[in-house]
């Protein structure tokens, strides 16, 4: 899956099946409702949502592939939107793991609270990731999973968010993010990937996830 040899100490986590909540009936009407909610969020705030479709389950699974979430002490998600990654993270974390999601859009926060009543979702910017780790009484997070639209986030904000992510992660902690195939060579995206290589000792790129609209790549960065 990854462009370089994966760290053998980290094994893929078997997904847990039963997670309560109304949004877990993934029939056509439920997927359609999620898409409608996502499009409404885009229309409210195109400059922070940055996509017209929620990520697919295939991309969500690629985002956590190779991460041992079942044994994580703390997992943080940035920009959960309607919860495409959130759902797979909730299925994968262990009973002892804390999991917090930071979302800027207030209505998306309410939607997530309804969809996943067990989720700790905070109406906050991703810049506050380290503050949230401290709020939860931890020194560090083990995993930070990002759904943020980097290609449309200004460079200075990218830097502030990523400096906070790097501070929040434990040594050996993992940050995962994704890029759409068509936008990964945009100047802001290229600046962002350069920034990642300055903050992480290892950055690996996944195989292309075709089962996503649009197709995407996952970046897995080890602190
Ligand atoms: C492209 S959507 C991705 C949603 C979901 N992760 C997915 O992949 O389907 C980006 C989300 O990031 C949120 N967002 C954008 N900037 C943010 C920031 N600085 N802090 C927290 N959330 C942010 C938006 O409100 C939106 O819900």
Describe the structure in your own words.
- It is globular and about 40 Å long.
- The protein has a seven-stranded mixed sheet, with helices on both faces.
- Strand 1, helix 4 and strand 2 form a beta-alpha-beta unit.
- It is an alpha/beta fold and 223 residues long.
- The protein has eight helices and seven strands; from the N terminus they run αααβαβαβαβαβαββ.
- The site of S-adenosylmethionine has 23 residues, from helix 2, helix 4 and strand 2.
Structural class: alpha/beta
Global Rg: 16 Å
Output the CATH topology: Rossmann fold
Shape: globular
Named at the architecture level, the CATH assignment is: 3-Layer(aba) Sandwich
Report the uncertain regions: 4-25
The molecules bound to the chains, other than polymers, are: S-adenosylmethionine
Number of domains: 1
Number of helical elements: 8
Beta strand count: 7
Mean pLDDT across the residues is: 87
Biggest sheet character: 7 strands, mixed
Helix content: 25-40%
Strand order of the largest sheet: 3-2-1-4-5-7-6
What is the beta-strand fraction? 15-25%
- What would you give as the CATH superfamily? Vaccinia Virus protein VP39
Distance between the termini: 20 Å
Order of helices and strands: HHHEHEHEHEHEHEE
Give the class-level CATH name. Alpha Beta
Brief descriptors of the model:
single chain; 223 residues; alpha/beta; Rossmann fold; globular; binds S-adenosylmethionine
Task: Walk me through the topology.
Elements: H1 28-44, H2 46-49, H3 57-64, E1 74-78, H4 84-92, E2 98-103, H5 106-115, E3 120-123, H6 129-135, E4 141-146, H7 155-168, E5 169-180, H8 187-199, E6 202-205, E7 216-222
Parallel strand pairs: 1-2, 1-4, 2-3, 4-5
Antiparallel strand pairs: 5-7, 6-7
Helix pairs in contact: 3-4, 6-7, 7-8
Residues 41, 48-51, 54-55, 78-81, 84-85, 102-105, 108, 125-126, 147-149 line the site of S-adenosylmethionine.
